[in-house]
Amino acid sequence: MSEEIVILGKKYSSKDRVRADRTDKLYEDIPEGETLLKIEDLNVTYRTDNSTTVAVDNISFDIKKGELLSIVGPSGCGKSTILRCIGGLLQPTSGKITIGDKECTTAGSDRGMVFQDFALFPWRSVRRNIEFGLEIAGVPKEERRERSTRYLKAMGLEEYADHRIHELSGGMKQRVGIARAMIMHPAVILMDEPFGALDAQTRNILQHSLVEVLKNSHRTIIFVTHSVDEAIYLSDRILVLSKRPATIHNILEVPGERPRERAAPEYAELRRKILDYLESQNTIF
Predict the structure, then answer these.
(1) Which of 36, 50, 127, 196 could form a disulfide with 161 if both were Cys (CB 3.0 to 4.6 A apart)?
(2) Is there a contact between 36 and 64 (Cβ–Cβ < 8 Å)?
(3) How far is CA 219 from CA 43, 246, 277, in A?
């Protein structure tokens, strides 16, 4: 018989609890393609003694379960600010962010983050970096190893499992960061310009690796990028922001299934449409 747990007067069976490493299971009742995450009237305003700066101006949009939504816009317009609000790393001035029927007011294991600057632990091996979240969640050692082995293979890192972080290239470090986020099975993965610091060839390789991972797992991803080509190659939809204070200029569907041909003529008009708008916002790429 399973143990009964009482929290604030409500009874839960231990078999009903969702482990911190599988928060995607909290939203299994939401079908693919339906709204998973909703942002309503999000506003971020910075105030000092002498000035008030509106960074994000009452924006609203939703993210569908199983989609990759890219956010593009002028440099400094608030793309990363929005992502940090969703991740619970920054408290918005006003507005509401919900996953399913749960309001997000702080950071939580249902949202995983991949940073541009890797944010890895140099004293841990590649495998132990990937396993870090599982370790904190109390996942047994045997299961941690089995799951990390799968993600090492998926990201092409098998032979580097026992290497230290300083022994890796920038592209390999970012593969570790992506594997560390995905292994936790969060409901939503937030990627803040994850390939922005990489050279063009490595960037293309990692974009392809991400597409391959998405083929085998229906992940929900919000992806911030400065690259329109990257957004078209990866995304189901692209959210285009204005210059600061950020407002939504457009949300565009990207036709065709992944993987896509980068130079395909059918994407030329979409690329031109986005670039023309960004250039009108005095954006320099």
Answers:
(1) 127
(2) yes
(3) 27, 27, 29
266-276 pLDDT per residue, tens: 899 999 999 99
Contact 74, 240 (CB under 8 A): no
Q: Which pTM value belongs to this model? A: 0.88
pLDDT tens digit sequence for 246-255: 999 999 999 9
Does position 71 have pLDDT exceeding 90, yes or no? yes
Q: CB–CB of 113/120 below 8 Å?
A: no
Query: pLDDT: is 80 or 4 the higher one?
Result: 80
d(CA 90, CA 281): 26
Q: 182 near 149, Cβ under 8 Å?
A: no
Short-list 124, 166, 131, CA closest to 147: 131
Pick the CATH number of 18-25+34-280 from 3.40.50.300, 3.30.300.130, 2.60.120.260, 3.65.10.10: 3.40.50.300
Q: Which amino acid is at 112?
A: G
